[in-house]
């Protein structure tokens, strides 16, 4: 990714428009990976052409799937759960935690050796969260720092089933275990923190995998070796819905700007992803949600947000996994609001592309906002609609920070400069085009 792209932004007077955000990142990754594990051909449209999802395509190609991409349309010729081949080089996951952790699960059950690595940010993120439970299911994994840091090497083997209690609400960990079990010979039951985004469960079920979802547990029954079962998972052609994590930047933009109305059509409204809408509503935002429908097991709808008088709130507990990626931009809403906002139970922020407790608080302080970090979150004193102070803000190569600062720039004076603004390539390559078009 190119470095050193500095962008200087000046607040616009008016924000109006319809913004079609790119396809969902989590669903794009899974559509390519899971279809590579199916036997047959699938066509994925509205695929997110971001650096993270392109890393997934490259890795699945290196494992033997035939994948072609024409702009946002991807065709995958899958090889089946038992058809992957040993890669002849390291698998480079770039900046993408989802690629590395889901692949670790897939590879744990494959009868060959592989090594997963990535960029400096990914190599500094914790991996014991997948290494430890995958070892408990019988896999052989190791890595730097006693298995906690990539490169992670995987010596695949037949997986045992059993029961595992998830300690963190992480969809990447949950998915890694379910994918490992898919290649095994006994059911796997997960309990504990199963309350993270559930795209893996929905997509595998849509592909015919026998997966039982209880209130407090998930059980995956691997397809047996008989002929009919070997065709499961079945290929799934789908249109990827818009990414609510990308739309959330525009939701906050419209809520804080004094003369705004923005609509984001056809975004994924899976309840495990809509915590930001709940948080903004609790803060008093003027939001309309319309036209809900289902596509490939995911609810979809249009969201309109208008200028609002926001008040501070508390974000904590079970809400956190439903808005974890949106906390940087919700912090901008909190900075603009009247009253204080407390974010708690969000220690997972420290394990993201940057330590987002430290980096968000640092940026807010530069914008003239009183904010303090805590172990598991932060405290933000709202400015009650008084303008933020334009500043030079670092993205630290973290895509969601670059975009959160761009939303702050809509209400900061006289102007805001964002260093390494190109980080948006990871999840929203057209972000700057859209910002300028507004
Ligand atoms: C993701 C899960 C989340 C999220 C990430 C995408 C996924 O991470 O932050 O952007 O697609 O499974 P965790 O599993 O670490 O919570």
**What order do the strands of the largest sheet run in, or round the barrel if closed?**
2-15-17-16
Structural class based on helices, strands and sheet pairing: alpha/beta
Strand content: 25-35%
Provide the list of bound ligands, each named once. Answer: shikimate-3-phosphate
CA-atom Rg in angstroms: 21 Å
Number of helical segments with 4 or more residues: 14
Shape, per Cα inertia axes: globular
Uncertain stretches of 5 or more adjacent residues: none
**Helicity, in percent?**
25-40%
Question: What is shown here, in short?
Answer:
The protein has helices at 25-36, 51-62, 97-108, 120-123, 128-136, 144-147, 171-182, 199-206, 244-256, 275-282, 327-336, 356-366, 399-408, 431-437; strands at 7-9, 15-18, 39-45, 66-70, 73-79, 91-92, 113-117, 140-143, 149-155, 162-166, 188-192, 210-213, 217-221, 238-239, 260-268, 286-295, 298-306, 314-315, 340-343, 370-374, 377-381, 388-389, 392-394, 412-413, 416-419.
């Amino acid at each position: 990714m190119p470095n050193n792209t500095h962008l200087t932004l000046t607040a616009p007077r008016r924000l109006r428009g319809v913004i079609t955000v790119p396809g969902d990142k989590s669903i794009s990754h899974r559509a390519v990976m899971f279809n590579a594990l199916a036997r047959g051909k699938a066509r994925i449209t509205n695929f997110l052409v971001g650096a993270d999802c392109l890393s997934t395509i490259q890795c699945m190609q290196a494992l033997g799937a035939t994948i072609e991409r024409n702009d946002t349309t991807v065709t995958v010729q899958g090889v089946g759960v038992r058809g992957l081949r040993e890669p002849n080089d390291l698998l480079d996951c770039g900046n993408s935690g989802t690629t590395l952790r889901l692949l670790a699960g897939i590879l744990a059950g494959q009868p060959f050796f592989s090594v997963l690595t990535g960029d400096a940010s990914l190599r500094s993120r914790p991996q014991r969260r997948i290494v430890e439970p995958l070892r408990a299911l019988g896999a052989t994994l190791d890595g730097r720092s006693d298995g906690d840091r990539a490169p992670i090497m995987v010596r695949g083997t037949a997986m045992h089933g059993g029961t595992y209690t998830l300690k963190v609400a992480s969809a990447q960990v949950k998915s890694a275990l379910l994918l490992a079990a898919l290649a095994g010979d006994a059911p796997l039951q997960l309990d504990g923190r199963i309350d993270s985004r559930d795209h893996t469960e929905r997509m595998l079920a849509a592909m015919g995998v026998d997966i039982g979802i209880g209130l407090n547990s998930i059980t995956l029954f691997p397809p047996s070796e008989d002929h009919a079962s070997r065709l499961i998972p079945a290929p799934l052609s789908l249109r990827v819905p818009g990414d609510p994590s990308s739309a959330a930047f525009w939701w906050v933009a419209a809520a804080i700007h004094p003369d705004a109305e923005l609509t984001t059509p056809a975004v994924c409204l899976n309840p495990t992803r809509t915590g930001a809408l709940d948080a903004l509503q609790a803060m008093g935002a003027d939001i309309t949600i319309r036209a809900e429908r289902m596509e490939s097991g995911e609810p979809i709808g249009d969201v309109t947000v208008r200028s609002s008088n926001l008040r501070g709130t508390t974000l904590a507990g079970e809400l956190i996994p439903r808005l974890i990626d949106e906390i940087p931009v919700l912090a901008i809403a909190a900075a603009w609001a009247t009253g204080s906002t407390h974010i708690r139970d969000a220690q997972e922020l420290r394990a993201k592309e940057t330590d987002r407790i430290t980096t968000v608080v640092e940026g807010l302080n530069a914008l003239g906002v009183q904010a303090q970090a805590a172990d598991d979150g932060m405290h933000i004193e709202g400015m009650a609609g008084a303008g933020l102070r334009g500043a030079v803000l670092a993205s630290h190569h973290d895509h969601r920070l670059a975009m959160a600062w761009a939303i702050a720039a809509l209400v900061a004076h006289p102007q805001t400069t964002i260093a390494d603004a190109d980080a948006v390539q990871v999840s929203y390559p057209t972000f700057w085009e859209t910002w300028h078009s507004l």
